[in-house]
Amino acid sequence: MFPPPPLHFARPPLDFIPPAYSPWVLRFVHGILPLLLRLRVRPWLPSGIAKIEATGVETLAQLYHQFQAGQIRLILAFRHVEVDDPLVGLYVLSRLVPQAARRQGIRLRQPIHAHFLYDRGMPLWGGEWLGWLLSRLGGIPVHRGRRVDRLALAAARRLLLDGQFPFGIAPEGATNGHSERINSLEPGTAQLAFWCAEDLAKAGRLEKVVVVPIGIQYRYLKPSWKKLERLLSHLERLSGLTADPKPSESSHRRCAQRICSLAHHLLAQMETFYGLPPFTAGEPFNARLERLLNTALQTAETYFGLSPQGDWNSRCRRIEEAAWTQIYREELRHPGSLAPLQRGLLDWKAQQATLYLQHMRLVESCVAVQEEYLLSKPSFERLAESALILFDVLARLRGDPYPARPRLGWRGVHVTVGDPILVSQRWERQYRQGRQEARQAVAELTQDLQLALERMIS
Q: What is the CA radius of gyration of the chain?
């Protein structure tokens, strides 16, 4: 008997999905939003959100009023904690902003919505239907690993200048799974804001560009320590770790110790896998983790011929783009023109790229494991978020890239709308003065957004 043929991993190229906003699709999504927030309609979508509150939403209503009056172009710079964040944003815009406008006697045109950027990879793991849906909601896909995704940037600039809605961007670029810890922001949000100011000036228009930071924090309404401890027992069994809980201690301290023990155990297993030397007694956890993550990335970078430059996120994005180049092939736009041998070799290369891409995926999950962050404040939320991140790590190692996270109880969300930042004045004063001044202006605006989002954490 001959073995079965290998799976065809090589696929046609990832084409740009143009935004095609449909008010009917948006109305349908708004209608089923309460269901989407409470139920797990897809395995990878945790939801289970029973309550959403907002502070400063009156400011957002006033900004939407100014936007609709043609006075400003508005950018919503929101935190990106979990995959649920877009659902929370839809609820705030469709429910809370109109309510705040009515309380202030402001009349807003409906619907209240925002165009947005999303990762081009989302339809790959969510399904082709997700790309269709995000397009109809006015979203623009961006290849995060490309140095310049010209199609995405051109579409974003057009909508920033002339779109019928404000524009939403996650300055962090990716989720980190922590409500109370913010990643270093990427400069893209600030750059787009200054480009919008520049495009307005070229068009002779008087609107001002405003960026408003928006924070998101998740809370468990009724923390279930039993569910959390069951999850930890499950993770310990999967990893081969013998649990030694101490009933005499508080739930907070006991769970924190179990999570740290699990993290150290996984770290030791992965150090052995990558052939790293045994750690020395007293070596800090963060130093060991950084060494492991660097080794994992270098394994992938060596295969793809990349140099290890930049922070964790930029290195991950370059690896992802290199892998996609080998998996999504221009030659397969017309696969009938390929000989079976050619197709087979493309499949081999794609399978190798898929395998080496997993080293980067491991880093994406592990980089959010923060022992010091957990122990400094072992609240139920931090414990639960850390346990779920370790759940993701184990799922990656077991070959399940998009696991259905267990629910640890109903969650509430608090959204905080910060003080608006007027970008147009900075563009006039600094950005347009020269290349060096422009880079400095982008860096300063990015830092101001970082500090504004950090101040919102309660």
A: 23
